[in-house]
Design a protein that fits this description.
This protein is mainly α. Helices cover about 60% and strands about 0% of the residues. Helix 1 packs across helix 4. The longest helix has about 40 residues. It is elongated.
Length: about 100
Amino acid sequence: LDYNFIYYYLQTDSFISEIAKHQYGANYPAVRDEDVKRIKIPLPGIEEQREIASIFFSIDSKIKFVFNMSKNLSDLFETLLNVLMTGKIRVKDIEFEKVENLAEN
């Protein structure tokens, strides 16, 4: 049993919807241990479990990278906007490099 495989399986929509069927309590929803133990989990061979977990780990890493990149670019935009709007840098003073044809690169 690969614990990373189980970790990712427990986050799937099918598992969550199955758990939701057994919830009780309105203010603080809970499930009983017995109900969780009765849920069947598809269990491929150990190598396939590791491969599946590895793929999901890779996807999670890429999502985190893109999220961080987006946040950094947003922060940079806000900083540049502030600098330009306060007049600390004037657009007419910025030297731009002319790019002839971006499609060739």
